Amino acid sequence: MIAAASMAWACAAAPAPAPPPPSGEVTACGSERFTYLIGQPESAIPRSELPPGVRVICATCMVTQDYREDRLNITLSADGKVASLRCG
Length: 88
Prior knowledge:
Layout: H1 2-13, E1 55-57, E2 72-76, E3 82-87
């Protein structure tokens, strides 16, 4: 029970993912090229087409907090679908 409460708190404490850029906006990491992936399963991510340094981040994965404007972060939801794209 304590573990379940800890998981709920950890999920609630996570910052909300950034929304995709508005249509037509160009980002430093190229996220606008991949907005069609939002809502798709992880298996739909075209890994061979992703820019260098991209991170695919699962819902419970820990990541470093360093910021790189040119790095694309693809965040997955708990059910394994693409939840958001953001630079950083």
